[in-house]
Amino acid sequence: MRLTEEQVRAFREDGVLVAEGVVADADLAPMIAEYEAWIDDRARALHAEGKIADLAEGADFGHRIARLYAQSKEIANGMDVMQLRGPATFAFLRNDNLLDAVECLVGPEITCNPIQHIRAKPPAESAGEGLGFYNVPWHQDMAVTWQEADDSEIVTCWLALVDATVENGCMEVLPGVWRRGYLPHQPGEGGTSVCPEALPADVKPRPVPVKKGGIVFMHRCTPHRSTPNYSDAARWSLDLRYQPAGTPTGRPFHPEFVARSRAHPETVLTDHAEWSRRWVEALESSKGIRAHRV
Length: 294
Ligand SMILES: O=C(O)CCC(=O)C(=O)O
Hints:
This protein is α+β, with helices and mostly antiparallel strands. Helix content is 29%, strand content 17%.
């Protein structure tokens, strides 16, 4: 779905845009089916090891993993994009409806940045309320790249795979703050976060709920966080980043690829095995490298 001029203007102004209905259920279905099959296999393996008693068969995408996670946190191990490396997920990274919207923000030559995550945020009852991968502290995405990417127009695309609500822990943003540039960050157990004294006190956090298939687009200097999930189902989402081809990604040790090119379509990577191979190799060779700048 292409963005309207008004949407593009709003993104440029606020550094954040909530766009509903960017991709259709049919666009997401193969990737969701891939994850459902993987979760089923993993649940059966954990069941065989005696770590899970109830397979929660018949529960929907959000409820099944929540019920499994409550029994064993191991259900989520190995599920992230670069770990599972599913063909349907790789194909989705080049989804036309998604890239039509991205093109309106970064232009027609598009690189897929390797910072790409899938998150099934479990209910707080089992995952807790502490900061971490599921309840991320205030940060700018610029803080999780190397300085080489400071001038790269990296746009974060936070895509809801189920309806994301205030109750289940959607994103919160500080609109307009991107204009202040990079804010000092600090490392911490809960994740890289804006130093408390640098967090703007004059801007009210805006929760950005979005329905399944909608995207929250964020500038790389837009502070954002997410809060605990107080529902009984997982909050599934995908956070991807795209940028003009040829600009540094800030993660030179992880594989980027050209997702769309109007000028040189032959440069687009469509070979799933090659993408997967590059990730396997990079995960091995980048061990011990500090990915965040603090
Ligand atoms: O999905 C979340 O809860 C956090 C996502 C995030 O921090 C990001 O996309 O940069």
